[in-house]
Structures are given as C-alpha cells and as structure tokens.
Amino acid sequence: MPLKIQKLTPSQALQKIKIFCAYQERSHQEVKDKLYGFGLYRMEVENILAELISENYLNEERFAKMFAGGKYRMKQWGRIKIINELKLKRVSPYNINIAVHEIDENDYLQTLEKLALKKWQSLKADQYILREVKTTKYLMQKGFEVNLIKTALQKIRSKE
C-alpha cells in the first residue's frame, strides 16, 4: 500500500511543525522529511525551515548535544555509536564534534569500566580468552573505542 501524503498549505504545515519541534528536539533532516510528508514543495520547505531556525524552534547544535547526552546517560552508548547515529540523522560534523566533546571524559571512562566489569563478571563460567573476546565485542557494540576497552580490561585483569 503506498504511503499516504497529507496535503497541507504552508501555513497549516508551519503550525503543525512548530508543535512537532516544541515536543522534543529534532534534527533538520527529521523536520524536512516531515514537511515533505505534508506534500510541500522544496521552496516551501526551505522557507519554513528558515522560519523555524529564526524562531529557535530548530537548532542543530542543541539537538546534537541533547541527543549525545541522552544516549550516553540513558543507554550508555560510547562515542563511536553516538557519532554514527548523528551522521545518520545528517547532523553536520561541526555539531557532532561539539556534542561529543560535551561528555565528561572521567565520567565516560568510569561508565566504560563499570560496563566492562559487569559484563566480565557475567561471563564467569567462560574461558579467560572467551571472556575477553565477548566483553570486547559487547563494548564495541555499545560504541566504545578499542584502545579504551583494552585499558579497561587490563585494569580488570590486574585486580583478579
């Protein structure tokens, strides 16, 4: 079944999209996609985007910071996963860089070590090498950097 496009006038679309943006932070691409879904043309979409930005409904830097902070705190994602997700949302490299640098380095390392230890302890029955491989894979899937993972695992091994 084809996707049903709702045809709105630019002023109707502006009112709807303001509510959409006020509800939570949005990337420019999410808003563009939504506006095109309302059946608007390119110039209408560009004009509405400009108005949303000037009225501060839309701010890509603010979106990137909120996204990165939220995914790090709530889902305990690492920097690599956060960066990749922001790229998928077509956030500019400049704003991605700002967002990722908002994460406190000490807090980031503590989170990594806590996740590594928890995973390591959950694999008690496995062989030593297998534990290391599984823990590394898990942390890489979470988006943490390999060099930081190796350091965290060395700390765990030294305590055993």
TrEMBL record:
- Per the UniProt record, one Pfam family is RecX_HTH3
User: Domain RecX third three-helical: where?
Assistant: 107-153
Q: Which subcellular locations apply to this protein? A: Cytoplasm
Major location, coarse class? cytoplasm
Q: Which GO biological process annotations does it have?
A: regulation of DNA repair
Keyword presence, Cytoplasm:
yes
Family statement drawn from the similarity comment of this UniProt entry: Belongs to the RecX family.
Q: What name does this protein carry?
A: Regulatory protein RecX
